[in-house]
Specification:
Layout: H1 6-34, H2 36-42, H3 58-65, H4 70-80, H5 86-110, H6 122-132, H7 138-157, H8 162-170
Length: 171
């Protein structure tokens, strides 16, 4: 296998450098300045605690999978436990912001644009504003990401036949 040309590698690194720098700064900001441990300790005081309790076991998982929207609720409850550790909570917030930016980019590509450009950073900025108020917006972020991801998956895999497309949509 022939090694890659240095110019190609350099172009690839420069194409991901702004995104890496931005989300690296988001991670450090959330970890050092927002401090997700305060959000974890505020559960029950600022936000009702019961929606974020997580238990291990098949019964708890089965209860969530049996309901509509239960899988996203299960993921939200699991991820909420990471706020007890500052670095892990910051990783969850940064991952949610990155995922929402990628999905915005996917929507832009689906609309015929080459990419979202600067618009891919808007969901991350909005999420940062919400977290800076010490609220717990991981629920809407995960739910919205799952819905948009499901739409993009459907748009990619949908057959061209209208009847088959409606059948797949209903399924």
């Amino acid at each position: 296998m022939e090694p890659s040309h240095p110019t190609t590698i350099r172009k690839a690194l420069w194409s991901i450098a702004p995104e890496g720098l931005f989300f690296g700064a988001v991670y450090l900001y959330v970890w050092w300045f927002v401090d997700p441990r305060l959000i974890h300790h505020g559960l029950g005081i600022l936000t009702p605690y019961s929606p974020f309790v997580f238990r291990t076991g098949w019964a708890f998982l089965g209860d969530h999978v049996a309901r509509i929207g239960g899988l996203s609720e299960y993921v939200i409850r699991l991820l909420s436990q990471c706020y007890a550790f500052g670095w892990a909570g910051a990783l969850v917030v940064t991952g949610a912001a990155w995922c929402m930016g990628r999905l915005a980019d996917g929507i832009a590509r689906r609309a015929g644009m080459p990419g979202a450009g600067v618009l891919r950073y808007f969901p991350a900025a909005i999420l940062l504003m919400m977290y800076s108020g010490y609220s717990h917006p991981i629920g809407p972020a995960v739910s919205l990401s799952m819905a948009v991801g499901g739409f993009l998956l459907y748009a990619r895999c949908a057959p061209s036949n209208p009847a088959a497309r409606w059948a797949m949509l209903l399924a």
